[in-house]
Design a protein that fits this description.
The structure is a homodimer. Chain A is of the alpha+beta class. Chain A has seven helices and twelve strands. In chain A, helix 5 runs parallel beside helix 6 and helix 6 packs parallel to helix 7. Chains A and B meet through strand 4, helix 1, helix 4, strand 8 and helix 5 of A and strand 4, helix 1, helix 4, strand 8 and helix 5 of B.
Chain lengths: 261, 261
């Protein structure tokens, strides 16, 4: 999906377009009943639904599947034998997600839950943000040993890391940072920045907004849904943060940059 | 956490130890009632619990929190004001996870759900697996444009990719591959291999076992729980797959390699 962006490299801004990975919710229905919502890249949705049912042990034999059908752009229904429903497991009312921001939202319409207000940031100088990936890497003790951890950090408007946490789950690393701020009495984190070592998907944008951050900075790529939610809710969103620059996908003014024409 | 491994580089095996990121389930309780299980890296668990409750909009003010306490090694209880419970949201019975393999498992004891039997692989020659990251990258059309996608692939014992799928969620990419095999009548995938472009956590091992794969090959690092589940259930597990070799953390015989002393 093509989106507008401000590419800021070597202190020069350019305005162009960028392709981002498409992320959209998919509702999974079992014999007509919605049992799960996952954030996925559209395509091969019937296979996704069946693979999920198989992995969860709900569907255990090919013969139990009567049919599978894309019943709407973002909904798939799997029709299965009565024996599957009788065996149970599907009533767990679980929710699949690429992390955990949409857990428990029972329908697609509930996914964009209200979050906290994004407070205005102090005027930032974007140059101050460029050393962040290197600073975060230096602070990541466990990653250095294992290569297996995501990091999230609360960063102040001067670009200093105030709190960094690591976890195997990127949403957990963010939750640890936000929860620590709650314990310290610092929530909401108006005017502050959230840094993540990986990609920026919908749930991280949602968590950033809920905590009141002014902007989300990612080393990796954003998803389409992350870009649209950040644009809509006033969150600054930057990806591909490197020592020489970054790409800004939403609200460049949050980083002290001018927007497009 | 330190684990044994077979490091196989430039056609030479060595037996040594490696640090892997610790992944363990955490049960989150709200006023004594279990409402969520997440796979996380232990540490700052109280903050994790509070950040999760905040991000989900269950806890909205600091004053609503009465106390938060680690009540067991892998369980945290948050005691909140009656008003929070009355407001609702927490009854959604949701399940947080770094992907979706533990969704809906209502207690820690259910996490290691039974999966399919891992069938014996044809004798593999590990050299055949080395080109996989390059082959997968060449086949990843969307990643090439966006830098934002995970890939999963069904690979046959000759090292050929039989089916590759991309998704913003790594577990979705695996579900798409497994679901496609179900539709094609190829499940269970005994003797076949599962390749993933990222890290290998618990849920991917669980999904690989459920689909009957003989081994899981990852470009990234494995987690501690992934290693122990693979060892226990007979799944071959390799990480850091590169053009010159890989590290094998469980069942090296699945890759045609000898185990340690």
């Amino acid at each position: 999906m093509s989106v507008e962006r401000v590419s800021w490299r070597n202190a020069e801004s350019s305005f162009d377009r960028d392709d981002v990975a498409v992320e959209e919710p998919l509702e999974l229905r079992l014999n007509g009943k919605a049992i799960s919502v996952t954030l996925r890249t559209p395509g091969d949705d019937e296979a996704l639904a069946l693979g999920f049912l198989w992995g969860e042990g709900i569907l255990t034999r090919r013969a139990e599947l009567i049919s599978v059908e894309q019943v709407a752009e973002n909904a798939v229904n799997a029709q299965v034998a009565a024996a599957v429903l009788e065996r149970g497991g599907w009533q767990r009312n679980f929710y699949a997600t690429s992390s955990c921001g949409v857990c428990g939202k029972a329908s697609l319409s509930m996914i964009r839950a209200p979050g906290g207000v994004v407070a205005a940031a102090s005027p930032l100088r974007p140059e101050m943000l460029l050393p962040l990936p290197a600073k975060a890497r230096a602070a990541q003790e466990i990653f250095a040993r294992t290569g297996g951890l995501h990091a999230a950090a609360w960063v102040d408007p001067e670009g200093e890391i105030r709190c960094l946490r690591e976890d195997v789950g990127r949403h957990n690393a963010v939750d640890k940072v936000v929860g620590r701020a709650l314990l310290d009495g610092s929530l909401p984190l108006g005017g502050q920045l959230l840094f993540v070592s990986g990609r920026a998907g919908f749930e991280l944008v949602q968590k950033a907004i809920a905590a009141g951050f002014a902007a989300l900075l990612a080393v990796g790529a954003p998803s389409s849904l992350a870009v649209s939610l950040a644009q809509e809710r006033g969150l600054g969103l930057a990806g591909f943060l490197r020592a020489d620059g970054m790409n800004v996908y939403a609200h460049p003014e949050r980083f002290g940059l001018r927007g497009g024409a």
